[in-house]
Design brief:
InterPro entries: LRR_dom_sf. The protein is α/β, with parallel strands linked by helices. The chain is 41% helix and 13% strand.
């Protein structure tokens, strides 16, 4: 097996890249295998090491060993004394850092620095800058950058080679100034996804960065307050209306509805943190202007009536709709389900809330939406509703479209053992069902008898 062609080995090991334990065992087979696996392990080293002190220290020791003598001397001159185990670390067998394809996040480098130096912000800042300079000069073909610090990464030596093929940028305008973003705009022109945080103030470098991208597909505007983004950024988004197909807003009203309406090729839209809307009326018709929209995700719009109006004004092409909220009240939940059943005939995946008064709308949904594949229903009722689960099962038995094969139901609805058995028996002969009851609060509703039924139907191939 050790004689397998290197390209074949690469394909095999790439399929196993999430199984680090297996890859580590393969490292020892021979030098050829080692060369291939080391590159895979160091592509995204942070997710594996971060949070495990012993292995984290090994990782950081390896990184520090690549610092140039002049950089190490600079650290010493500024009072940054690294542990002897770090400075005396033996010469690495590979140029590990050059294999990285994800640039290290600021919080992770801070974590490593504090692990070595303790809580000294000045020394931490000096060490972090030298580490970032090392990565910029060593790394090629970086695809993803999360930029949430004041360091001028785009002006470090090697920045052109490091960032020229960037396709994902998450930038916090509170820390990254206009000059740094202007320089980054000269380096990378093929960013496909950009996340902009805290863009209320004018930042001409950010505007230029957006303008210069040739195929910007996804934009996220995220702010911690209710300030509107700058007018210049609004205009830049309009200029990219032909390429943007995904748009995420948090909060929604940091951007005028006219900007959203201009994104005529939009396919995916997400609204987050909409709880402080004073006037939702002007946003209620935006879906009317988005004929290609097929994915709509909403988080924390507290009023089902407002959401129902949004859906009613859509063009009928929505295939995936999901709604989550931590502070909804149990009112008008049925209005939203009714709007979906009448305005979204192509819906395939639905996540929303259902009350005990909405079963008539559930029936209408299942009858009208013949392409449904997945439904998730949460309950807003604080008290248990005895055996409403059996009523839901009966509706699903009679009206479920043949396409439906994933169902998640809330823990507030009690299900009898006989009701569960009757439902699963009705599913026999259909595509195996992925089924769950979300028992976060009322685990006493789920008994050993329920478990026996689920195991039986799983063993018989009815459940996935």
């Amino acid at each position: 097996m050790s004689k397998i062609n290197a390209d074949c080995l690469l394909l095999i090991f790439n399929e196993l890249q999430d199984d680090k334990k297996y890859l580590y065992s393969c490292l020892l087979v021979n030098r050829a295998w080692c060369h291939i696996i080391v590159r895979i392990l160091w592509k995204y080293p942070w997710s594996h090491y971060y949070g495990y002190v012993k292995s984290d220290r090994k990782l950081f020791n390896t990184i520090i060993s690549f610092l140039s003598p002049s950089s190490k001397q600079y650290l010493l001159d500024n009072g940054v004394e690294l542990p002897l185990t770090t400075t005396n670390f033996s010469s690495p067998s590979f140029d590990y850092i050059s294999f990285c394809r994800d640039f290290p996040e600021d919080e992770k480098i801070s974590y490593f620095a504090r692990m070595m130096l303790g809580k000294d912000e000045i020394k931490e800042s000096i060490l972090k800058e030298e580490i970032y300079k090392l990565f910029v000069i060593k790394c090629e073909d970086i695809k993803k950058l999360i930029w949430k610090n004041t360091l001028h990464l785009s002006q470090f030596p090697g920045a052109l080679t490091c960032f020229s093929r960037l396709i994902y940028l998450d930038v916090d305008a509170k820390f990254v100034n206009s000059v740094s973003l202007h320089k980054m705009a000269q380096l990378c022109k093929d960013i496909e996804k950009i996340i902009v945080r805290n863009a209320a103030q004018n930042n001409l470098g950010l505007v230029e960065l957006i303008d210069i991208q040739r195929n910007l597909k996804s934009v996220s505007i995220i702010s911690k307050n209710m300030e509107a983004i700058s007018e210049a950024l609004n205009k830049a988004l309009i200029r990219k209306a032909n390429t943007i197909i995904e748009f995420i807003l948090s909060p929604v009203n940091c951007i005028p509805p006219s900007i959203i309406k201009s994104l005529i090729n939009l396919k995916k839209l997400s609204f987050h943190n909409c709880d402080e809307f004073e006037d939702f009326e002007e946003y209620s018709k935006i879906l009317e202007f988005l004929p290609n929209l097929w994915y709509f995700h909403v988080k924390d719009i507290p009023f089902f009536k407002d959401l129902a109006r949004l859906i009613e004004n859509s063009k009928g092409n929505i295939e995936i709709f999901s709604f989550y909220s931590g502070f909804c009240h149990n009112k008008n939940t049925g209005l939203l389900i009714k709007a979906i059943s009448r305005s979204c005939p192509k819906i395939k995946e639905l996540t929303t809330y259902l009350s005990s008064d909405d079963l008539i709308y559930l029936k209408e949904l299942l009858v009208n939406c013949n392409y449904l594949e997945k439904i998730e229903f949460f309950s807003l009722e604080l008290d248990k509703v005895e055996y409403i689960g059996d009523e839901i099962f009966d509706i699903l038995i009679e009206y479920s479209p043949k396409t439906l094969h994933k169902i998640m139901l809330s823990d507030n609805w009690m299900f009898s053992i006989n009701g569960l058995k009757r439902f699963l028996e009705s599913w026999r002969g259909r595509r195996p069902l992925s089924f769950s009851i979300d028992y976060h609060h009322n685990r006493e509703y789920f008994t050993y008898g329920h478990m026996e039924i689920l195991i039986k139907y799983k063993n018989e191939g009815v459940l996935k």
